[in-house]
Sequence to fold (334 residues):
Amino acid sequence: MSTLKDVAKRAGVSIATVSYCLNNTKTVKAATRDKIMQAIEELNYIPNASAKSLKSESSKMFGVIFPDIDDLFYSEILEGIVANAENKGYSLNISFSYNSPKQERKLINQFIGKNIDGLILITCQPGNSEYFEKSIVRNNIPTVFLEHFPNNIDANFLGFDNYNTCYSLTNQLIEKGYSNIMLISGYKEFFSERECIRGFSDAYEDLDLALPSGRIVELQRTKEAAFRKSMLRIVNAPPEAIITSSQQIAKGIVEAFNLCNIRIPQETCIITLGEECWNESNYLPNLLHTSRTAYTLGKYSVEVLIKNLAHPTFFEKAFMLFKDNVIDNPLQIP
Fold:
């Protein structure tokens, strides 16, 4: 395991300078700080990891890392985390990776150095199992992954049953007579998006229907990416129905459709995975939502983390998928 001395040597600075940079006790030049952070990244250095194992008392603090806060779905999850953590007497250190794997790793390393009791995160680098193994598993950091789950990692995971949700929605649309249906989701490297694609594809297969090429579109899960893709590929020949894996994607599509005077739902029925919220009713009119309880997901993630802390040795890691209401209660599709 790398030491503070190793970081200082790699960065070409003194050990004291590295300490100042990590603890923010003195001002360090931006160029020097960049060299230190690059050395930490290259060496996979975890600040104060040994101190954590020697310290027996709880910090009563959880670290929370989300990709961003623009997505209403993420906001609802975060509200559930905040509410339950406060009720349980835990404080939160909340940070955002802004979909940067490098930033996410930096934040995780900092949290471990602060002796946090546990970590809740929506990772933007699910394929980097090696890093999570070295940083989280080896340092015995109780962790709850939400929505995006790294492969082969012994950690807790909570998410939504996107497979059955998309499978059910696709079936409902086909039963209503829709034939030209499109799924627009994030990249399949993410578990939640991959399950959307799998459910959509299996619905066609189980009905013995051929899934035409081009009906599944993958893109970055942002409003801007969805807007660009819609303008370039969709508005010229809009499908009868669109299923989106997030409200951010739905927002981008709606903006493009409004700009091109494509009526929703008269010309295209749009269904998005997420919650219908009173303050979005004017911004996303005539959209259908699957009514998922993101607040409950966030609330329960704290419960799982606390149980993991109470029984670190014998706790069986949780893998839970919450159901959307649409699975048991079909939508009123026009």
User: Anything to note?
Assistant: The first helix runs from residue 4 to 11. The radius of gyration is 22 Å. The CA atoms of residues 308 and 316 lie 8 Å apart.
